Amino acid sequence: MNAQHSMYEQGAGIRGMTLASVLLALMLTLFLEALDQTIVVTALPHITASLRGFDRYIWVMTAYLLGSTAMIPLAGKLSDQFGRKPFLLVGALLFLLGSACAGLVQDMNQLIAFRLLQGVGAGIGISLVCNVPGNMALTHFPCSAISTSWPKAHPESDEVNLH
């Protein structure tokens, strides 16, 4: 057995209250992004009526969706290279900044721009909320340990090669 496998068998990684607080923070991040989307969809007819912008009603939602959809793969790739924590913090900051500015808008163009900013932050958050628990699990169960134990647990599947 090599040193890498013994390190994982000893339980290196996040445990206890640290693990619980990281998972709670990730769940709160996703909850805020989902709650925001639910509230805005419900209130959007009243918001557009007060801003007199029914002709650009659909752009408020489209800007958010375009921003988040574009950022999900980009944030995943860049966070692989440069680390997840700074991207998660920047994503939360962009989302909160976009939310605060969207509450202070004076016309529809500003609302569309700030919803785009909010969508960029949400896309970063969604991507990393899905990636971080997977990375935490890999500290306990590395792919190499799983792939070397697969043939022992499933002898009938000789054709599977996970290396």
Automatic annotation (TrEMBL):
Under Pfam families, the record lists: MFS_1 (PF07690)
Q: Which GO terms describe its cellular component?
A: plasma membrane
Name-wise, this protein is Major facilitator superfamily (MFS) profile domain-containing protein
The organism is Ktedonospora formicarum
User: Which InterPro entries does this entry report, sorted A to Z?
Assistant: MFS, MFS_dom, MFS_trans_sf, Sugar_transporter_CS
What is the superkingdom listed in this entry's lineage? Bacteria
GO MF annotation: an example: transmembrane transporter activity
Q: PROSITE patterns under this entry?
A: MFS, SUGAR_TRANSPORT_1
